[in-house]
Amino acid sequence: xxxxxxxxxxxxxxxxxxxxxxxxxxxxxxxxxxxxxxxxxxxxxxxxxxxxxxxxxxxxxxxxxxxxxxxxxxxxxxxxxxxxxxxxxxxxxxxxxxxxxxxxxxxxxxxxxxxxxxxxxxxxxxxxxxxxxxxxxxxxxxxxxxxxxxxxxxxxxxxxxxxxxxxxxxxxxxxxxxxxxxxxxxxxxxxxxxxxxxxxxx
Length: 202
Fold this sequence. Notes:
Elements (H helix, E strand, L loop, with lengths): L1 H30 L4 H6 L7 E3 L24 E4 L7 E8 L8 E10 L4 E2 L16 E2 L21 E10 L11 H8 L3 E11 L2
Antiparallel strand pairs: 1-2, 2-5, 3-4, 3-7, 4-6, 7-8
């Protein structure tokens, strides 16, 4: 009986030491994991400030700019673009969509670096006249230009990410690119980026 009791003490001591060791290892491991923000930006500086006069960050996108309204693009403006930037590009998508990949709402690129805003209602064409020099790509509906929020009814708030990218060189690409094709073309050329998030639900 006494021998059995000593064995139990020995087992508890070993288990306690193991638990402490595992906890210490977990703490060391978690400290080496980058923050969520650095993971989202891929290590690219989030220095560009992007905003809209139609809605504030974290607030609902106006019905006018959704499928329930006139489905026109919202006005956007930005600042703090790096001086060495040569061109800009913007992608809007919805990671809350019930699809394997974020649902793409807008792909526009080759925006001249001297342009500091996009007006409301950019034409859904490959080369919109409102932004000379810019090209637009395909959204997840497989059409060109902007398509507004249209989440499933009762699905709760969806978050719409407008990401602006500053590039160190002009892109030699045609209009009609998908988000994936644009990201591939921009690889290794992104100097900085900025993000504006709006919400919408039905």
